[in-house]
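2 proteins. here.
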Amino acid sequence: MILIDTQKEEFSKLKDIRVFGRISHENRFNKNLLVIGLGGLGGRTVCALKGMLMDNITPEDNINFLMIDSDIAEMEATIDDSKEGVGFNALEVISIYRPDIENVLENGIQKNPIHENLANWMDPEFPAITIGRDGAKGNRQIGRLMFSNAYTDVRMLLFDKLQDVYDKTTEGTVDVLIVSGIAGGTGSGILSDVAYNIRAYGKAKKWNNLRIGGCLLTPDVLFGHKAVYEDTELVARLNANGCATLKEVDYYMKLSEKDDNYTFISKSNKMVIRENLFDACMLVSGRKDEQGYIPEGYITRDTASFLYRLASNKFIGNNDVENDRKLLRDVFFENEGYSITNWKMEHSDENIKKSNCYYKVVSEADYHIPIKEIENMCENDLFSQAYKGLFRSPFKEGNAGEDIKNVLTELTVFLQEEQGENIKLAVNGLIQYGQITKPTYKMIKKNTDGLREGFAKKMENFEKELPVIIKSMKNKLWSSLDDVISKYMNEFGPYGAIDVIGAPSAGVTDSTKGMMAEVRKLEKMMKDYTPSGEYTRIIDSIKTIVAKRFFTFPSAKRETENGYFDACIKEALAAERTKLIDELDAQDLFGDTLRWLQQRAERLDEIYSQFGEDLKNSIEDLANNGDKAVGNILKKAKRHEFLPTDYVTSRRIKEMETGIIKLMLDNESNIDSGRVVPVKDEMEKIYRELFSGVGAYGPEKMFTVAFADKKLTEQDLNVMYGSPINDRRTSIMEEAARAFVDDISEEQPLCVLADGYKEKLLAKKYISVPNVMPYFSKAVKAILMAPPYNEKEDSITLNPGEIEISIDDIFVGVPVSMMQCAMEMQMAYNAVYDYKGLHIDEVNKDMKSFPDFVTI
C-alpha cells in the first residue's frame, strides 16, 4: 500500500472507529496513575502500555508515563518516535546521564573528581571504568552511581511529575507503578532509589493515599534474543544481577519488620527511611515454547496488557453476591501475601494476616470478542459497493452528454450557421443592425447610400473590441464547463467529474465522450471554416443592374432596395463572423480550453486518486485482518455474515457514496496541500449514520445473524430483541457463548512457576465479561458456572469498557524460590566472586541476615 505520508497516522486511526462495539469513555479508566519505566526493558514495557492507552485516555483520566534511563541514544529514539504517535515525548523522559560522570572512576571511586560523598557506598577496589552515553552496560552499581551524580536534577523532575499527578487528583489518591528489568544496570541499579524517593516525597507532603507497586521482569525475559542467549557469559551475568536485585528487593519489601532502614546519599542529599519498598510487587518471567524462549516483545506486550487492566476501571467480584465488588487495581495492592513458613504452619488466618510483602504472580488471558473485526468487515462490504459507485459513468447514469451539449450549443450553432445569418452569441460588442436605415433606390443608383461605408466604420470599432469579446467568450465557456464539472463532482465524485471531462491522460477509458471530445469537434469546425464572397457578389450585381437600368415600377424599386439592404447586412454579418472566427483561432480559444480541461482532469486525478486508493486499501486491509481473526475465533458460526439479509439496500449504499464524496470534496485543499485530512472523524460519522438502523444490542444482533440456523432479516432481529425474554434469542446466544467458552485455551502465565507449586499458593480468579453484550455475557456466565468449569459466581463480573472475556489468576505470597528460573539465578549468583557490580551496597553483599533462596 502506498500511503500519503501526512495521512499515515490518520489512516491508521480507522482501526479505532467503533460503532457496534462503541465504548463510552465515561468512567472507563481508573484515574490518578503514574507508570514509570526504568532502564531499557522497563521503558519498552511502559512504552507498549502507553501505545495501548494513548488513543483512549483523556487528560481528565490523569494517567501519566515516565521513562528514566541512562542510554542517550535510546532516549533520543523514543522522543523521536513520539512524533509518530509512539514512544515518550521529551516531558516523559528523565536522563540520569551527565557528561561529568564519564571519567569519575578514572582514578578509583575514592578519588573521584566530583564529590567525596558521591559513592562512598561503593567498594574502594571498584575497577576503573569509562562511563559513556550508552548506559550503565549492565552494571547495577554504575546505574546507581549515575543516578546519584544526577540526583539534584532528577529528583526535581521526578518530584515535579509526582506533584503534577497529585495536583490533578480530586481524591488525593496517587498510585505509582514502577516497571523494571532486574538483570541490567540502570533499572535494577536505581529501582530502590526511585521507589524510596517517591515514598519519601509522599511522606514529606503527608500524602496518606500514595501506593507504590512494582513490576519486575526477570533475566530470562531477554533470552528470546538469540545474541543474548547464545552468550553464556552474558547469561550468567544477567542471572547473577537478577538474583542480587531480588535479594535486595526482598530485604526492603519487609524493611518495616526489621530494626534497619534504607539510606541514600548523593553529593548533597541524604535520605533515611524505614518503610517497605513496595505495597505490592509482581514478577514477570520469560517463557519457553517448543521453539525456545518467546521474544521479548510478546512478554512486554502481555505485561502491558495486564497493566492496562490496572489502569482501567476493571472490577472483580459481583455486587449480587455478598457485595464483593472491587477494582482490580485495589486487589493488586491488597496486602494479603503469605510465606512458606506460613504454609508449613497450615496457613492459619492469623498468619496470613501477619505475613506480607511476598510477590504476586499473574496468569491472564483475553478471549477477544471480534466485534471490531466484524464491524470492519461490514464496513468494507458497504464501502466497496459505495466506492464502485464513484466510478459510475455519468453518461450512462446521468445526463452528462446532454449537459455538455447544452453548454456548447451556442458555439456549435455559431460555427454551423450560414455566414450571413445573425450571430446569436450572447456577448457584448457585436455590431448592432436593428436601427440601420434602409437606403432608397435613388441613393443606391447614385451610390450615395453610404451603407457599406457605415458598416466599415462599425467593423473598425468591432475589431478593436474583438480581444475583449473573445476573452468574454472564453470566461463564459470555462465557467459553464466548470459548473457542469462541479455538478458531477457533487453527484458522482471526482472520478465521475474526470470522466465528464474526458482527458485520456487522467485514466479515462473512453475518450470519445466528454467535454474534450466535444471541444475538439468545435475546434475542427472552426478550422474547416472558409470565408465566402457570396454577398459581395450579390451587392456588386445589384449595383451593376441599377446603374444600367431605371425601374419605373414601384415594386421593382422596393425589391431592389430590399435586396441591396439585405445583401449589405449579410455581407457585414459574414465579415463579422469571419473576424470572430479568425480571432477565436488567433487566441486559440479551443486549444486553451482543451489544455485547461486537461489540467483540470489531471489535477483532480492527482489530488484524489491516490487519496481514494489509500482510503480503500486501508479499509480493505482492516477487513482482511478482521476476516482472518473472525475465521479463527468464530469457527462454529453458521456463516460469516453479520448484517441482516435486507440491510444493505441501494439507499444505504448511496448514502455512504455521498458521504465519501463529501469527505473528498470538503478536504480538497487539505489533500492538495498535504495537510492531514480528518479521515477517522469523517468516516466514523458516515459509519454511524449508516449503521444506525441496527439499533440497540448491535454486537449481539451481529452474533445472532452469524449463529442463527437460517438467514435473518431486520424484522426477525427486531422481534427477537423487542422483549426481555425471547427463547430463540436465548438459544442462539447460548450457542455463541459455547463457541467462545469451548475454545478457551490455557491461561498465559506472566511468570512461570516451578511444577507443583501452584496448589501451594493462595490464588484468586477474576473473570470479566462485557456489559455491552448482556445476553451473550449471561450465557457465558451460565456456562462457566456449570460443570466442568464450576467457577464461582462472585468471580464473574460484568465490566464496562470492554469487548472481551478476560480471566486473571493472581497468586499471592509467592517467594522467589517457587519461580522456574530461580535455580539458574541462584547458581549464577553463587558462581560470581570478583564481579564488582552485583550489589548496590558492597559492605552488605548478602543483605545482612537475609538467606539465600529457600526451597520447599
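next one coming up
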Amino acid sequence: MRSRRLYAITKTLLNYGLDDLIPAKWLPWSLRLGRHVLFWMPNRHKDKPAGVRLRLALESLGPVWVKFGQMLSTRRDLLPPDIALELAYLQDRVAPFDGNAAKAIIEKSLGINDIAELFENFDTQPLASASIAQVHTGQIRLGENDVKDIVVKVIRPDIRRTIDADLELMETLATVMAHHLPDGRRLKPREVVKEYRKTLLDELDLLREAANAIQLKRNFEESELLYIPTVYSDYSRHNVMVMERIDGIPVSDVEVLQARGVDMKKLAERGVEVFFTQVFRDSFFHADMHPGNIFVAKDEPLNPRYIGIDFGIVGTLNREDKRYLAENFLAFFNRDYRKVAELHVDSGWVPRHTNIEEFESAIRTVCEPIFEKPLAEISFGHVLINLFNTARRFEMEVQPQLVLLQKTLLYIEGLGRQLYPELDLWKTAKPFLERWMNEQLGWRAVVRSVKENAPYWAEKLPELPNLLYENLNSQQHIQRQLERQHQQQLMHQQQASRSSFWSLLAASGVVSTAWLVTESSTPLWPITFGVITVILGSLAWRSRPRANNL
C-alpha cells in the first residue's frame, strides 16, 4: 500500500510540474536521473503559474495534503509571496461519507443500540463535510420539555490510517529535502512536518476540541464580542462531539450583513478586539479563524456579535512571550524601532551579538511605509514577509509558539479588509494594548496580585505567629553558632601562632646542637642544647591547633 501511495504522489507531483520548483543544480544526480527515467509522467499544466499548479496538486492528493498546504500558506517566511497567496485559496472540499455509517459510529461510541434513544430527528444527510469529519443535524432531549437543536460532529472512519500513511511519506520527503536542498537547514522541513503532525492529530481528538470550546465559552461568558456554542460533553467522545446548533450569518456574506443593517465598522473593530482579548487577556486563542468558522449573530445588527465554531486548533502563549509581544506591538505603533530591535535581543529571538543599530535601521525600512494608512492599503502579510526576510539577515529563527499567532493575525487582516476596508488596524489595537500593559505593569497589576494571593495569605495568616517565633529562635541559634565558630577560629589562630613560635625555636635549637656537636671540644654544650631543643619541640607539638577546636 505504501509503495502504491508513493507512486500516486510522485505521479501527481510530476504531472503538475512541481519538480520545476526546485532548481536542477540543487538535486543530486540520482534524482535528476530518476526524473528522466519517469518520462511518461510529463508536466501536463505548463500553462499555469507555479502557485496554481501546487494548489491543484495538493487538492488532488487529498485532505492530508490540503491541510498541509493551508498550514504552509501561513508560513510566509518559507515560501515566495505568490505561492503562499495561492495556497491560501486551498479548499477543504471532500465528498461526504455515508450517513448511515456516521449513525453507526455515533451509536457505538455512545454505547446505545439505536440513535433514537438520545436524538430526535437525526438527519443522516450531512450538513457539512470536510477532510477530517462531517457534521449532522438533529435534536436532543435534555428534559421532559427541553429539546435542543444540535449538530453532531463525527470523525471519518479509517481516517487515522490514511493520515499516518501520508504523514510517514511526508517525513521521508522532508528528510530528503533537509539533506539535499542548500536552504534545507533554514526551511526546516522535518520540523515543519513534525509541527503539522501534532496539529493534525490534535484535530482527530474531539474531546480535546470539546474542552477547547468549553474554555473559550467560559472566557467570553456574557460577552458582547463573541458567542461560543454550548458543548454537551456528556454525549461527546474522542470521535463524536455534540454541540448546540447556532443560527448565524456567515461572516463572508457581506451583502447579507449590509442588507440587514449590520454596523460593519463596529463588526470589523470587534474582530480585532476579539483577537487581542484572546491573546493578551486569556493567552488562549482560536487559531483557525478563517471565514468558514466565523458567523455573525442575527440579533442586534447595530451591536453585532461574532459566533465561533470548530475549535480543533487553539494557541497559547506563556507570560514572557505575551509581554514581549505586547511591548513589540506598542513599540511598532509608536514607531520606536530601537525598542523593537532591543526587545528581539532581550527575548532571545535574535542572537546577543546582533548589531542593534543595523537591526533598527532594517526594521524601520520595512515598517515605516505602512503607517497612517487604512487597512485597505496595507497588506499585513506583505509586511510579515519583509520582516521575516529582514530577520533572517540577523539570524532570527521563526518561533514555533508564534506560528499559530501569525496565522490568526493573517485571518484577522483578511476579515477586517472584507468587512470594512477603511479600518485602521493600528488605531483600533493600540488603546487595547496600552490598557493591557498598564494592567500588567501598573498599580492595577499590584491590586490583582494581592487579590490572587489573598486566599493563600489568609490560609497562612494563623500560622504567622508560630512562623515568626520559629524564625527568631532559628536566627538566635544561628547567631550563637556564628559566635562560637568565631571564637574557635580565634583560638585556632592563636594556637597556630604559638606552635609556629615554638617550632621556629626548636628548629634553631636543632641547627645550634648540630653545630656544637662538630665544633665544641666538650659534650656538655651539645647535650644542653639538645635537651633544650627537645623541650622546645615538645612545646610546639602540644600547642599545635586541634581539629576538634574548629
